[in-house]
């Protein structure tokens, strides 16, 4: 089974079971954003994590095996056209150069790691409508010459 086919089964089973991504993450013992990304095929899960998720969702060993596979992390133009995902691309297009300048000013010549990295999402009440708060927390990696 491919990771994409496993992801489809996970999404369907989650909806049918009424489980939230947070409930699955709690069962797996990992952060909700990472767990969701892994179950959608973007990270390999350990045997224990995959087994726990599949048991909770009533999925078979074939799905658990696929969830353990190393993913291909590629750019998918179809996914990038989704309105929610496109807004992240748009925000980085507008603010990316400023963030780069500010990172260099604060830390020096280097980059924020997307490997040694955590991401979180939260809701913040606001009078004009609730706000989505996304936190990227990556290790600074300096360029060494």
TrEMBL record:
Coiled coil: none
Keywords: Lyase
One Pfam match: Cyanate_lyase
Catalyses which reaction(s): cyanate + hydrogencarbonate + 3 H(+) = NH4(+) + 2 CO2
Active site: 87, 90, 113
Enzyme Commission number: 4.2.1.104
Gene Ontology MF terms: cyanate hydratase activity; DNA binding
InterPro entries hit by this protein: Cyanase, Cyanate_lyase_C, Cyanate_lyase_C_sf, CYNS_N, Lambda_DNA-bd_dom_sf
Limits of the Cyanate lyase C-terminal domain: 74-145
Functional summary from the UniProt entry: Catalyzes the reaction of cyanate with bicarbonate to produce ammonia and carbon dioxide.
UniProt xrefs under PANTHER family: CYANATE HYDRATASE
Family: Belongs to the cyanase family.
Protein's UniProt name: Cyanate hydratase
Organism: Krasilnikoviella flava
Gene: cynS
């Amino acid at each position: 089974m491919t990771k994409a086919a496993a992801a489809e089964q996970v999404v369907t089973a989650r909806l049918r079971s009424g489980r939230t991504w947070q409930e699955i993450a709690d069962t797996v013992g990992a952060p909700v954003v990472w767990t969701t990304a892994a179950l959608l095929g973007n990270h390999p899960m350990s045997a224990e994590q995959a087994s726990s998720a599949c048991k909770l969702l009533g999925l078979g060993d074939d799905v658990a095996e696929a969830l353990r596979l190393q993913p291909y992390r590629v750019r998918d133009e179809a996914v990038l056209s989704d309105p929610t995902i496109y807004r992240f691309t748009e925000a980085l297009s507008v603010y990316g150069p400023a963030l780069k300048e500010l990172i260099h000013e604060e830390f020096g010549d280097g980059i924020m790691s997307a490997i040694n990295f955590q991401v979180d999402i939260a809701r913040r009440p606001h009078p004009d409508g609730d706000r989505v708060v996304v936190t990227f927390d990556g290790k600074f990696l300096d360029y060494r010459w």
